[in-house]
Write a structure and sequence with these properties.
The chain has 148 residues and is mainly β. It has one domain: Immunoglobulin-like. 13% of the residues lie in helices and 47% in strands. Strand 2 and strand 3 form a beta hairpin. The two termini are 40 Å apart. The N terminus is likely disordered.
């Protein structure tokens, strides 16, 4: 019986050691980001080195001009009308690049130095309010952390 207990303990210890070295993919919604009741973009793929990833933005009503903001999760900036379509729209990404369209795809380089690096993705669109004035709507933002 002692032998069996020892092998069970060794098996559990081995499993814990193996799991400790495994990084799980991390894609999280940044709380409080976007406009009130903002939809969450769909993340596609696994954010591991050497993998393809993408974001599909929520549908915006025509004639909206869609864009994807890529950057670092930064200090949130709150936009209200007239710039935003609704009061309390929160930009959670510190923009490094803005891509036109309602989706974005990329290949993460197979570089181990990228493991643990995080970036922010947030979708937006230029829309018209009921008076015909152009304004911005923002989706919830995602923080994506690269794993192995």
């Amino acid at each position: 019986m002692f032998q069996k207990s020892l092998s069970t303990v060794a098996g559990v210890a081995l499993a814990i050691a193996l799991l400790a070295g495994v990084s799980f993919a991390q894609v999280t919604t940044i709380p409080g980001s976007g406009c009130p009741r903002a939809p969450v973009p769909q993340f596609v793929g696994t954010p591991g080195i050497g993998q393809s990833i993408g974001v599909i933005c929520p549908q915006s009503p025509p004639p909206g001009a869609d864009f994807v903001i890529l950057g670092a999760a930064g200090r949130p900036i709150v936009f209200d009308p007239p710039l935003a379509c609704l009061p309390g729209c929160v930009l959670a990404c510190d923009p490094l690049e803005i891509v036109t369209g309602n989706s974005w795809r990329a290949q993460i380089p197979n570089d181990r130095n990228l493991i643990g690096a995080c970036f922010c993705v947030q979708c937006g669109s230029v829309q018209r309010d009921p008076t015909g004035r152009a304004c911005i709507m923002l989706s919830a933002a995602l923080q994506v952390c690269i794993t192995r």
